[in-house]
Design brief:
Layout: H1 3-17, H2 21-27, H3 30-45, H4 52-84, H5 88-99, H6 105-120, H7 124-132, H8 144-173, H9 175-191, H10 203-212, H11 214-227, H12 231-241, H13 251-261, E1 265-266, E2 269-271, E3 274-276, E4 280-281, H14 290-316
Antiparallel strand pairs: 1-4, 2-3
Helix pairs in contact: 1-5, 1-8, 1-14, 3-4, 3-9, 4-9, 6-7, 6-8, 6-14, 7-8, 8-9, 8-11, 8-13, 8-14, 9-10, 11-12, 11-13, 11-14, 12-13
């Protein structure tokens, strides 16, 4: 079965429709279903009375369970399609349709555009509300540059986590790959952070996510470089600054986008009332503005079209 072709179908369906709000209101979304399972495991297995080593072991077991269940469901659905439908093009199409909810191409674009539009009109209050939906930092402390920086960073990082990575693993392994990856990514977003509650329990979730995103993050960065209006600056910034980021992966697409736009990203910020003194990416460049979000979205759209084109070539090669 041509899994690369199936991922093109998934990207196309999501670009055209996203995940419709009426459908979300009626049945939710596969990520929310995973979230309920992870939340239940966190509530039942992550006991504060346990020793850190025991909590880490429980976190390892919980992560393996969630990933295995997701991948097994993907394998079962894919096997049924292969058994029931002898025509490969129908199999490819249906795998793509089933993978569609796991590709956040349209959602990411719309959420970032929702920040850019009021910011372009000078409505800082509305832009703060919109950016609070996609980042965890305190929006009340953000001016125009801070809002633009947060939106562009979210666009760059989530292009990797929300589109390139699931499509990468889906192109390799089909539904088990994309479902398994979404389980990994959801685990990391829910329990893979260094809070008091999740330092031990979320250790495995964070490490597995680092491994799963290693290649996709770098691929995303190179896609941005190829489509950048300032290719040499994007490439030099990415290769120079990517490792300065606190994440072993997020720095690649973010540094590439910083160089592509000629702005500085990352840097100091406030999370939940606490200051985080992060290093700058593309330090010495100017601060981003609303128009840079628009240009970032243009690079993003072109990069996703290039990714779909490369997958189509693989599918028909």
């Amino acid at each position: 079965m041509g899994f690369a072709g199936a991922m093109v179908v998934a990207m196309a369906v999501d670009a055209l429709s996203g995940w419709p709000s009426p459908l979300f209101a009626r049945i939710g979304h596969p990520v929310t279903w995973l979230g309920r399972l992870i939340g239940a495991i966190d509530a039942g297995w992550n006991r504060e009375s346990d020793a850190p080593a025991l909590r880490r072991g429980a976190g390892v077991a919980g992560a393996i369970l969630v990933i295995a269940l997701a991948a097994a469901l993907g394998w079962l659905l894919q096997s049924l399609l292969q058994f029931l439908l002898p025509w490969s093009w129908i199999q490819i199409t249906l795998v793509g349709v089933l993978a569609w909810p796991l590709v956040a191409l349209r959602s990411l674009h719309d959420h970032v555009a929702a920040v850019a539009n009021p910011l372009l009109g000078g409505d800082i209050a509305a832009a703060r509300v919109a950016v609070s939906r996609i980042v965890g930092r305190d929006p009340t402390a953000l001016d125009e540059s801070g809002i633009a920086r947060a939106a562009i960073e979210s666009l760059a990082e989530n292009a990797s986590d929300g589109i390139v990575a699931p499509v990468f693993w889906g192109a390799l392994f089909g539904l088990p790959g994309i479902l398994g990856y979404k389980a990994i990514n959801t685990l990391d977003s829910m329990i893979g952070h260094r809070s008091e509650r999740h330092e031990a329990f979320g250790w495995a979730a964070a490490r597995i996510d680092d491994v799963a995103n290693f290649i996709p993050a770098r691929l995303t960065g190179f896609l941005f470089v190829l489509l950048a209006p300032r290719q040499s600056q994007a490439l030099s910034c990415m290769t120079r600054d990517a490792r300065r980021h606190r994440s072993p992966n997020a720095g690649w697409p973010e540094a590439a986008m910083a160089g592509a736009l000629g702005v500085r990203l990352s840097g100091p910020r406030i999370y939940h009332g606490s200051a985080a003194d992060e290093p700058w990416l593309n330090e010495g460049a100017r601060d981003p503005l609303a128009v840079d979000i628009v240009e970032g979205l243009t690079i993003y759209r072109r990069a996703m079209l290039l990714l779909a084109g490369l997958l189509a070539i693989l599918a028909f090669a």
